[in-house]
Fold this protein.
Amino acid sequence: MNPYSNQHWRNSEVGPTNLQGSIAGESGYIVRENILDAFDFPEMIEDYLMELEIRNYSKNTIKTYRSIINNFYKFLLTEDDLYDERLVLRAFKRYIRHLKRERNVSQNYIYLVTVVVKKFFEFGGIGVLKEVKTPKRTKSLPKSLSEDEVQRLIHAMDKPNLNNGHTHHSVSLMFRNKVILALLYSTGLRVSELVNLQTNSLDLEERTIRIRGKGEKDRIVLFDDKTGELIEGYIERRHSDSEYLFVNRSCQPFREPFNAPLHSNDDKRLCKSCRH
């Protein structure tokens, strides 16, 4: 028995001959029942999102799914004729058309909406969208910065002004961020690899870094002399004895990349070895 349905509304899960949900009225006539009355959508939504959390979906993914499902549910509330699966399917197609024409969303968002709503209906035991084909996603080439743009980005932090709100600590953070940008550009490291770099993985003489990648396999990456000089200068001036090359304001490894503030109003949060 479907826990979200009063079992009066039938769909294709119980066979093609039961396309129209109905209940017997007091007068003996057949009264068609709206799917929104037949199923407890609010409860089903909360249970589905709870299931995603249990299955260890990320918070951002759950937030996106919640938004998509709630928006579709709100659209269904504006529809009057939702008495069998054919009409619900038509309402779904109208919603997709509404997104494309009036909301002007991307094709990739249409793909995501289709996947999420289909999974949600499947979770609730509603087979209306089972035969709906998932639209294609568009593939676009990644946009990259030119060499000149990268160099300007790296050197944007070359001239901090201690008389313009920058403290000695914020200057150190700016230099750290410059080293991060230079190292990413020089080596092609993933951000996740860079924030987990340890000082003992560096060979400053050979200008190499040992990286532990996927599958616990090591690889060696090279960096140029200019980046090597920046790293040497950074290690000499940094005020932390952490085994990690890059740390946050509390001298701890990054949980999220580059989340340290650059202003002195957060100095009280710094660990004692970093505050200066």
